[in-house]
Amino acid sequence: MTQAMKIAAGEWTYVLRSRLAVWTLGILVALVAVSALNSDAQLRAEATTRAEYQRQADEAYRAQPDRHPHRMVHYGHYVFRTPAPLAVLDPGVDSFTGRSIFLEGHRRNTATFSEARETSVLTRFGSVSPAFSLQVLAPLLLILIGFSSVARERERGILLQLLAQGTSGSALICGKAIALAGVAALALLPLLVSGIWLAITHPAELRPLAMVLAGHAAYLAFWVGAIVAVSALASSTRSALIVLIGAWVLLTVLVPRLATDVAASVLPTPNQAEIDIRLQAELRAVGDSHNINDPGFQSFQQQVLEQYGVSSIEELPVNYRGLVSLQGEAESSAVMDRLMAEQHALQRGQSGVMKWFALVSPYIAIRHLSMSSAGTDLLNHQQFLDAAEAHRFNLIQGLNTIHAEELDYADDSARSRDQDAEQRTRVNSEFWSHLQEFDFTGTAPAQRAVSALTLLIALLLWLTASIIMLRSATARVSTL
């Protein structure tokens, strides 16, 4: 072990003397640190902005004057999602999906105003976050620092001298790996500091935070082992660099793209036009709740008359138009929920197919582990959409209940042609002041940590593979 540490110390001396290596190391550490600080500042600013927008939306809704309840149904309301605390480390899909939804009657809208759509094309490749820096850029910079670690010793004839002087092949390879692992540890340091701060400010996030740290440590350890092994097995520094750059491109760019295409082929999803056509066809079968004489509500009318024991809707103790609005919203929402559930299932299926590619690319493993642990993955986004829809449904049905119970059917029917009736159908604005606040928490921290466990195992398998490569490299060097 003493020999290994001497080799590691010598490698560090070489790194510090090399301007390219020093600049690369500085860029790597600075990039992770700056991205962490920038991500934290950005999320804080966005949180303040979202809170202000939510306050304005709530105040605008509550400040509406006396009006017909169904006008409030179409007036709508905005809700915003507060990102999970660990989004500072990995914003995940949030940058592409958006965190605000407009809620209105008869429609189930999706999230809007995503960061990637509002910024440059470069952002769409990935947000410059600590996770992106460590997952994509750190391996490349480690390659630039470590590709020549063993190969240059062979080219200069120093390798044979070291072996002749009694340095074992295992000590040599181990020392080179320790030195490069120190570089990787420096890159992880800003993430560790950020993690400690998050653990202090959000103690409940400790378990998923530990998964994020362990996953990135295993991921970089794999690259350290692979870089040193390739450098030892390659015939020259040039061939080592070519092989390692090719491996980086394959594992972080090509395989993830292939995984996306395979998932889309195995579980194809309809485009938005096809979804809209199907949705409109099914909603037409439900009927138009704005027209109480729509054929789709004939059986419902008969049920209502029988329930109240009357022979006409004019005799009902409640406003039949409001009842139709309640029924129509319930039926149309059931259709929208069913179609959306199908889309969510297909998307989760595609995500599941992609996760299998974690056995082909460690980048896919760490990417999904990081998003899942941070609560910024597809599942949490879908939960946000479902929570917003449940909030929308309760809001709209509350207004429809006011429509049914507070308005007279005769006035409601005549309001378009009778000014006095129109005035009587305006309910007191006090009803709008009881707006329920939207609250979304997402998947529990402990559950997020458990869901990422299989991906951590995949990363440990990749780490094992790199250790096997190092053993092979040790055997190769020892036989020189």
First-to-last CA distance: 21 Å
Beta-strand residue percentage: under 5%
Q: What's the main sheet like?
A: 2 strands, antiparallel
How many separate helices? 20
What is the helix fraction of residues, given as a range?
Answer: over 70%
Taking all Cα atoms into account, the compactness measure Rg is 30 Å
Explain the overall architecture.
With 480 residues, the chain is mainly alpha-helical. It has one domain (2-478). It has helices spanning 2-17, 19-62, 69-75, 94-97, 115-118, 130-146, 151-155, 158-164, 169-201, 206-233, 237-266, 272-286, 298-308, 320-356, 362-374, 378-406, 409-414, 419-424, 445-451, 453-478; strands at 77-80, 100-103. The protein is elongated. The relative contact order is 0.14. Residues 116-126 have low confidence and may be disordered.
Short description:
The protein has 480 residues and is mainly α.
What are the defining features of this structure?
mainly alpha
Topology:
Blueprint: H1 2-17, H2 19-62, H3 69-75, E1 77-80, H4 94-97, E2 100-103, H5 115-118, H6 130-146, H7 151-155, H8 158-164, H9 169-201, H10 206-233, H11 237-266, H12 272-286, H13 298-308, H14 320-356, H15 362-374, H16 378-406, H17 409-414, H18 419-424, H19 445-451, H20 453-478
Antiparallel strand pairs: 1-2
